[in-house]
């Protein structure tokens, strides 16, 4: 199978930039700090097996949530320049007259976001490898945490790409992407407060929508960490209660929700590209 030429070019360009390695170093440093500060060696000799398992689970949750937060910060700034950089360098018009179709170009740009996210996920595997030695969680739970992060990252990449298509400069695209993000948080906080007043607060507080709560639900058995007793089992469900003996219900539902969100943004990108591509020729 031939690699999309856009993906090939973007990946080479990405790893030629010094700032890429700067951000990756900061990203890993923060995650390593989370692990080191939570490592059981910091506690007393009376630290028991239950405490070890609890620490392992909480640290795994912490790493995944910090990863998601950092990816939320890093991805928009990169993906918002996927089309604007082409405009600024006057290469978009040349790209538009190649044998690549509109869908090839858009799909190539989407693949860049997927690659970047997978790269940020893969470099954290050694951290979880060290943590796994403590016990307390199953590999399937970590894999599903990664799947949730990838699902959210896809939606984040696509909204940044949409602003990249409709903006004339990288500065505008990046600022609009982050403004949209904070506006979304502002709107959702008001919507959540209103829904709580009318007794429907569970809609936006659901682990099927909130990725942080979804990860907590997978590792702790309840969203928000509200539980009365600690479960020593590696999984909060027996295998017969898991979907295909592997997936938690929360994982499938959050994938479906953000899959729909991603599809909406893909359609918006295609529509905006069709309307504006004549200006680039």
Sequence stretches where pLDDT stays below 50 over 5 or more residues: 223-235
Helical residues, percent: over 70%
Number of helices: 12
H/E topology pattern: HHHHHHHHHHHH
Major sheet description: none
Q: What separation lies between the terminal Cα atoms?
A: 30 Å
Strand content: under 5%
What spatial form do the alpha-carbon principal axes imply?
globular
Number of domains: 1
Cα radius of gyration in angstroms: 21 Å
- Average pLDDT number: 79
Describe what you observe in this structure.
This protein is an all-alpha fold and 281 residues long. It has one domain (13-280). Helix content is 72%, strand content 0%. It is built from 12 helices and no strands. α2 packs antiparallel against α3 (49-79), α6 packs across α8 (139-166) and α8 (139-166) runs parallel beside α12. The longest helix has 32 residues, at 249-280. 29% of the residues are buried. The model is unreliable at 223-235 (pLDDT under 50).
Quick summary:
The chain has 281 residues and is an all-alpha fold.
Could you outline the blueprint of secondary structure elements for this entry?
Layout: H1 5-14, H2 18-38, H3 49-79, H4 84-88, H5 92-96, H6 102-122, H7 125-132, H8 139-166, H9 170-197, H10 202-205, H11 211-220, H12 249-280
């Amino acid at each position: 199978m031939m690699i999309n030429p856009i993906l090939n070019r973007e990946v080479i360009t990405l790893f030629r930039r010094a700032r890429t390695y700067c951000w990756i170093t900061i990203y890993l440093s923060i995650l390593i700090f989370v692990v080191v500060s939570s490592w059981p060696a910091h506690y007393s000799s009376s630290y028991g097996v239950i405490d070890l398992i609890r620490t392992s689970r909480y640290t795994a949750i912490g790493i995944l949530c910090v990863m998601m937060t950092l990816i939320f910060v890093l991805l928009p700034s990169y993906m918002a320049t996927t089309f604007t950089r082409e405009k600024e360098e006057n290469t978009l018009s040349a790209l538009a007259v190649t044998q690549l179709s509109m869908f090839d170009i858009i799909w190539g740009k989407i693949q860049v976001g997927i690659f970047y996210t997978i790269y940020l996920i893969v470099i954290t595997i050694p951290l979880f490898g060290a943590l796994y030695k403590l016990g307390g969680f199953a590999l399937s739970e970590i894999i599903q945490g990664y799947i949730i992060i990838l699902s959210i990252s896809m939606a984040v990449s696509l909204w940044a790409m949409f602003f990249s298509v409709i903006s004339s400069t990288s500065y505008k695209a990046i600022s609009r992407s982050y403004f949209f993000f904070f506006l979304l948080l502002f709107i959702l906080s008001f919507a959540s407060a209103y829904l709580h007043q009318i007794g429907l607060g569970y809609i936006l507080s659901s682990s099927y929508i909130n990725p942080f709560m979804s990860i907590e639900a997978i590792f702790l058995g309840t969203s928000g960490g509200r539980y009365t007793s600690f479960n020593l089992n590696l999984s909060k469900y027996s295998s017969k209660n898991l979907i295909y003996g592997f997936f938690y219900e929360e994982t499938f539902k959050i994938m479906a929700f953000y899959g729909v969100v991603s599809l909406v943004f893909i359609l918006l990108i295609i529509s905006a590209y069709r309307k504006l591509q004549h200006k680039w020729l």
